[in-house]
Amino acid sequence: MPAAHLISAARGALATVLPAARGALADAWALVAPVDCAGCGAPDRALCPACTHAVQPSPRHALLALHDGAPPVPVVAGLAYTGVARAALLALKGDGRTELARPLAGALRTAVERAWPPGGAELLVPVPGSRTGTAARGFGPAVLLARRAGLATTAGLRAVDAGPQQKGRGLAARLAAEHPRFVARPRVRGARVVLIDDVITSGATLRAAARALRAGGAEVVACAALAATPRRVGPSSIPWRSIAGNDERPGDNVAREGYREGKEA
User: What is the dihedral of CA 156, 67, 167, 105, to 10 degrees?
Assistant: First the structure.
């Protein structure tokens, strides 16, 4: 049999065997360390098949103004921060369920691939969490998600614990915050940078990170995130447009009551 046919047959066999092997490993691991699905509560899986399907990439994009007078840059989020995606990310960040990073990572990778500028970039820089948050969790969410997505990142920013945290703050307070939140590391000087984060709400965190990078001599050419929070009270601060294949449609910018602004974890 020709080598090409052997390779094709092997690939076909792997495509059949690997999903079954993964399922068997998941079942075996559930006996050792029982878990419930972070999305629906079903037993014995970090994410059940239905909830895994719910976090498949559904990218949306917008243009984000990072500096006064500077042209806006593209920003892409892989998912809407609602439903299963929200529940899974909260479990990862709040409960330390790092096994959820793998099923979520595909959406971040899709966002980075769509945000990557045609002219290229030298560095993929994650937005760091606060010192207290990172110390409590033992990991940075954006870094962990990027690693699970197979993305190489550069620690180009250092968090500065000064002023109130963004978590739980209203949109006006977020956008009005002017105190430095990050400091750029020397390694970013002269580089074109794509910024990544776990969740985009108002864009205030990305703007603060971009200001620090600009002060450090870097140029932010795009931004990407795992998920974007739909603005459900008042007009959207970021006019997201959903992407389905090559088609675009308006994102979820409809005014709805009963939504608390801000990241929850």
Answer: -50
Domain ranges for the chain, please list them: 54-250
3-state secondary structure of 19: helix
The CA distance from 117 to 97, in Å, is: 33
* DSSP, res 14: H
pTM for the complete prediction? 0.76
pLDDT tens, position by position, 126-168: 999 877 777 778 889 999 999 999 999 999 999 987 555 555 5
Q: Dihedral, CA atoms, 137, 197, 114, 251, nearest 10 degrees?
A: 110
Report the relative pairing of strands 241-244 and 60-64 from DSSP bridges. Answer: antiparallel
As a whole number of angstroms, the distance between CA 14 and CA 179 comes to 53
Distance CA 189, CA 92 (A): 33
Distances (CA, A) of 233 to 139, 225, 255: 32, 22, 5
The domain defined by 54-250 folds into Rossmann fold (3.40.50)
